[in-house]
Known about the structure:
Elements (H helix, E strand, L loop, with lengths): L1 E4 L4 E2 L2 H7 L9 E9 L17 H12 L3 E5 H6 L12 H6 L7 E5 L10 H4 L6 E4 L5 H7 L4 E4 L7 H10 L4 E4 L3 H9 L5 E7 L28 E9 L2 E8 L2
Parallel strand pairs: 3-8, 3-9, 4-5, 4-8, 5-6, 6-7
Antiparallel strand pairs: 1-2, 1-10, 9-11, 10-11
Amino acid sequence: xxxxxxxxxxxxxxxxxxxxxxxxxxxxxxxxxxxxxxxxxxxxxxxxxxxxxxxxxxxxxxxxxxxxxxxxxxxxxxxxxxxxxxxxxxxxxxxxxxxxxxxxxxxxxxxxxxxxxxxxxxxxxxxxxxxxxxxxxxxxxxxxxxxxxxxxxxxxxxxxxxxxxxxxxxxxxxxxxxxxxxxxxxxxxxxxxxxxxxxxxxxxxxxxxxxxxxxxxxxxxxxxxxxxxxxxxxxxxxxxxxxxxxxxxxxxx
Length: 253
């Protein structure tokens, strides 16, 4: 891997990648969206999973970004489809996490309107800390009862989850470095509410192909255009590895 911008820095070791992806200082929440897409804009492989368009270098960057975070934030559909498990310690990041006053692994926070999650999955039964379930107060009683023994349920709205309440709930628990892993619907909601500070986008040298009504191309964001579209971003850095580009943007600058 090599840094191309803002300055060419030659080859980057895993430690150099971690230096490049260090989280901003300060006490305010910082939400980093972490997404991957093909060169023609698809956020999934034809099988419907992001892993199909990933690579070893992308997994290193992805693992470093989430490994340096306080909390991994994802929507329930992403947790189900990508088969999320409990975060695992990364020995190469242990010192950095200790120096930042962090626990051994990031916590997981799941946004759900229905509570349709499996409380017997390893994510709930084997995580170091119980996952946070960020849900509306109207969460069905049966799902609330099933999840309560294995998760911390936080009401973040009345009939729907409010994005601002999500960030506030995480900050109240000291979880200010937020790795937002999607999916496209949750990313769109967070972007629309102007709550995303950075977009870390991996662009892979792959093509997905055309799109039609029957076979729409999945993108990194879903739903309607942003209320202030097109929203500007500032390029912070570019890292390259075997044709894959790792782009970090500051949003709204």
